[in-house]
């Protein structure tokens, strides 16, 4: 397994994260356990801030959907980033954490009236409008509240990124955004400009996730600025902000080749400047929304090895006490991961095994065909780069409680998400009067 951030193998041959012994973390907090390397999370935030804000005067907006808790909100705020939220729940979390609402950007393709009202009442910095229906709804709600809302329009540029089908978003056939090609985008801009209660600040697009080809971003910038020039000719308006979304790819396993954040920033800024000058437009402020590339490498999940099933000549399965309930990405996207035995992190691999989860589902696999030392029940398996879209996509399938999460730094581990209990699983369950045990027993006695 490739070591990330503060990871190291200590003198006992155990994996350390943030100066904390992973085996001791597993013993103290139980498994499965999400471990966040605070130093690496902060360093990733700072790399973006330096590349976009300090170097080019842009704005970095962290995508909360990748990893978000009250504590994570505080980290993002302290590092000077904005916050991209996509639901009332994420917005509420930011509010409860005390995150500055002026730095919040509210996304989503089907925001409810209640969510939009919250955003207006709490005065979020920008509402990223996804469609014409939302534009009309937001205009009405802002009028009722007697406020003016700052908005950015999300457009579909027709740019297809080379990534998994489920995380492509920039192509024309997408549930997100107003399509440029068929005139929807221009219509949306004209309506926004005519609004009494909305202030149009800029344009937004997002071409996909886990993207390595920076040329795709440069092409998307060109498409957006060509459209901005058309809009300027039609209306006289030019965007003050251009939000290019996120999606920069990270290392998960061999073959992944992430590009430096500085290069990512320079490629987009160069394309933006050249196109703006060519069209005689002011250069808009460049906004980006990184998530995975900040939180992903900073996360590791610890599991305890249980049953081992060897099918000679076919495959050897090593089962752990988690799986698709805490990490559904392999089932959804055929995601790849690397791992090591945290209690034998320096040991040489001896065999090829496949790591299985414990859900009653054939697709509940964490890693296919990985070389590990010979595993035995009780070993601690550490899976790297699980900071993004693991906790936030976790679920209670098979009524499994979701794991705890700790923040590790300088040899200290702080609990930031408590482990769910069996009682938590029943918290919202109700038994109607007609199904109460007494009635059921009476019916049974009649039979």
CATH superfamily of the largest domain: Alanine racemase
Give the DSSP E fraction (strand runs of 2 or more residues). 15-25%
CATH C-level name of the largest domain: Alpha Beta
Structural class: alpha/beta
Subunit structure: Homodimer.
InterPro entries: Ala_racemase/Decarboxylase_C, DAP_deCOOHase_LysA, De-COase2_C, De-COase2_CS, De-COase2_N, Orn/DAP/Arg_de-COase, PLP-binding_barrel
Pfam family, one: Orn_Arg_deC_N
Binding site for substrate: 292, 329, 333, 361, 389
Describe the structure.
One of its GO terms (molecular function) is diaminopimelate decarboxylase activity. The active site is at 360 (proton donor). This is Diaminopimelate decarboxylase. Its EC number is 4.1.1.20. Specifically catalyzes the decarboxylation of meso-diaminopimelate (meso-DAP) to L-lysine. The chain is of the alpha/beta class and 447 residues long. It folds into two domains: 8-36 and 297-423, Lyase, Ornithine Decarboxylase, Chain A, domain 1, CATH 2.40.37.10; 38-295, Alanine racemase (TIM Barrel, Alpha-Beta Barrel), CATH 3.20.20.10. It has 13 helices and 21 strands. It has helices spanning 22-29, 38-56, 70-78, 88-97, 113-121, 132-145, 184-194, 214-235, 261-278, 292-295, 329-333, 422-425, 437-446; strands at residues 8-9, 15-17, 20-21, 33-37, 59-63, 82-85, 104-106, 126-129, 149-156, 178-179, 198-204, 241-243, 285-288, 299-311, 315-320, 339-341, 351-356, 365-372, 380-384, 404-409, 412-417. Strands 4, 14, 15, 16, 17, 18, 19, 20 and 21 form a nine-stranded mixed β-sheet that branches. Strand 14 and strand 15 form a beta hairpin. The longest helix has 22 residues, at 214-235. The chain is globular. 47% of the residues are buried. Residues 163-170 and 443-447 have low confidence and may be disordered.
């Amino acid at each position: 397994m490739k070591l990330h951030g503060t990871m190291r193998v200590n003198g006992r041959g155990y994996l350390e994260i943030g100066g904390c012994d992973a085996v001791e973390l597993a013993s103290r907090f139980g498994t499965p356990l999400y471990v966040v390397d605070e130093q690496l999370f902060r360093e990733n935030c700072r790399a973006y801030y330096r590349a976009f804000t300090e170097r080019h005067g842009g704005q970095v907006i962290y995508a909360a959907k990748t990893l978000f808790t009250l504590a994570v909100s505080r980290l993002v705020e302290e590092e000077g980033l904005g916050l991209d939220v996509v639901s009332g729940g994420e917005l509420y979390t930011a509010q409860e954490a005390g995150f500055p609402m002026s730095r919040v950007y509210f996304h989503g393709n089907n925001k409810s009236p209640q969510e939009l009202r919250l955003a207006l009442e709490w005065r979020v910095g920008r509402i990223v409008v996804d469609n014409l229906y939302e534009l009309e709804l937001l205009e009405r709600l802002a009028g009722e509240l007697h406020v003016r809302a700052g908005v950015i329009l999300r457009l579909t540029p027709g740019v297809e990124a080379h990534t998994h089908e489920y995380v492509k978003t920039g192509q024309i056939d997408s549930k997100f955004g107003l399509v440029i090609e068929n005139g929807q985008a221009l219509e949306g801009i004209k309506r926004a400009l005519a609004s009494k209660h909305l202030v149009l600040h800029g344009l937004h697009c997002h071409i996909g996730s886990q993207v390595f080809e920076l040329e795709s971003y440069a092409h998307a910038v060109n498409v957006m600025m060509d459209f901005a020039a058309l809009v300027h000719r039609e209306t006289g308006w030019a965007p003050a902000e251009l939000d290019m979304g996120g999606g920069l790819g990270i290392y998960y396993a061999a073959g992944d080749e992430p590009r430096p954040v500085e290069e990512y920033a320079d490629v987009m800024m160069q394309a933006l400047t050249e196109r703006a000058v060519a069209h005689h437009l002011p250069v808009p402020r460049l906004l980006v929304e990184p998530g995975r590339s900040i939180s992903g490498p900073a996360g590791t999940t610890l599991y305890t090895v249980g049953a081992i099933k060897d099918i000679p000549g076919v495959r050897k399965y090593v089962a752990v006490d988690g799986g698709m309930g805490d990490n559904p990405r392999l089932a959804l996207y055929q995601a790849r991961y690397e791992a090591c035995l945290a209690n034998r992190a320096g040991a040489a691999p001896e065999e090829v095994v496949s790591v299985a989860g414990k859900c009653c589902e054939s697709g509940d696999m964490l890693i296919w065909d990985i070389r590990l030392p010979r595993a035995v029940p009780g070993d601690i398996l550490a899976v790297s780069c699980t900071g993004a879209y693991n906790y936030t996509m976790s679920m209670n399938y098979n009524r499994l409680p979701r794991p705890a999460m700790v923040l590790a730094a300088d040899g200290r581990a702080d609990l930031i998400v408590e482990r769910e209990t069996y009682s938590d699983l029943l918290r919202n369950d109700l038994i109607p009067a007609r199904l109460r045990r007494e009635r059921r027993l009476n019916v049974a006695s009649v039979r």
